[in-house]
Amino acid sequence: MFVTNTCSHPGCHHAGLSYINSEGVLTDRSFYCLKHVEDPEGVKNSVYDYIRTHQKIVGLNASGLTFTDIDLTDKRFYGCNFQNCTFSNLHSEYFRARMSIFDFSLFVDCNLLKSNLQFSSFAGSTFSHVLFTGSDLVHNNFCGITSYQSSFDDSDLYNSRFIKANLIDTSIRNCNIKKTIFYESNQQNISFKQSNTREAEFEYKEGVIL
Predict the structure, then answer these.
(1) CB 92 within 8 A of CB 68
(2) 3-state DSSP call for residue 151?
(3) CB atoms inside a 10 Å sphere around CB 56
(4) pLDDT at 206
(5) Structural contact between residues 205 and 179, judged by C-beta atoms closer than 8 angstroms
(6) C-beta atoms surrounding 135 within 10 Å
(7) Which of 3, 95, 124, 161 could in theory staple to 144 by disulfide, Cβ–Cβ 3.0 to 4.6 A?
(8) How many C-beta atoms lie closer than 10 Å to residue 6's C-beta?
(9) pLDDT for 6
(10) In a 10 Å sphere around its CB, with 0-12 CB exposed, 13-18 middle and 19+ buried, how is residue 145 labelled?
């Protein structure tokens, strides 16, 4: 998993960004958050370059950064922290993540087709015009998300959580939603056509372990 260093600025409790040294190596050194780093543009570019030049990325902390027009095709992220990030206009396929955190992030106009995202968290995130069509989205936390005009069609959502999610004009057609939980979710103009809704949980039952 990513190193949970806090910002090195006195009194700041935000997550410190990953420090990438002059040789382009990701280190465990404590560093500053985006607000307190001395050269924010330089740090952003070092993270962007690291992602661009590596296929397998482990333990990256990029909390609070904005990713626009970046190709994540075939990129593999393990134990990375993308909390409070903005992802805009991404058009990628086969994006992979394991045990990574995207909580409270914003995804806008993104095509993440045929992604493979497992054991990861998107809690409190917002999806606007996002396509996950044909993806494996197993054992993920989508609790409290807001989804507008987005598609999870033809995907495997096995054992994922959409508790208290706001799903608006969103399509979940032809999906495996076995053991997927939608407790207290707000659903407006949602399609579950050809999905195995009898295997999903829409109402809380006593004795169910979340």
Answers:
(1) no
(2) strand
(3) 10
(4) 57
(5) no
(6) 24
(7) 124
(8) 14
(9) 85
(10) buried
pLDDT at position 81 is 95
Q: Which amino acid is at 87?
A: F
Distance (Å, whole) CA 158 – CA 46: 36
The two tokens of residue 175 are: 């999906």
What is the Cα 152 distance to its own chain's centre?
14
Would you mind telling me the total number of residues written for the chain in this entry?
210
- 193 three-class SS: coil
H-run or E-run covering 40: helix 40-53
What DSSP string runs through 42-100? HHHHHHHHHHHH-SEEES-B-TT-EEES---TT-EEES-B-TT-EEES-EEES-EEES-
8 Å CB contact between 177 and 157: yes
Does residue 89 contact residue 70 with C-beta atoms inside 8 Å? no
Residue ranges in the chain modelled with pLDDT below 70: 1-4, 205-210
Neighbouring CB atoms inside 10 A of 154's CB total 19
Report the chain's C-alpha Rg in angstroms.
18
pLDDT digits (tens, 9 = 90+) for 118-173: 999 999 999 999 999 999 999 999 999 999 999 999 999 999 999 999 999 999 99
pTM of the model as a whole: 0.92
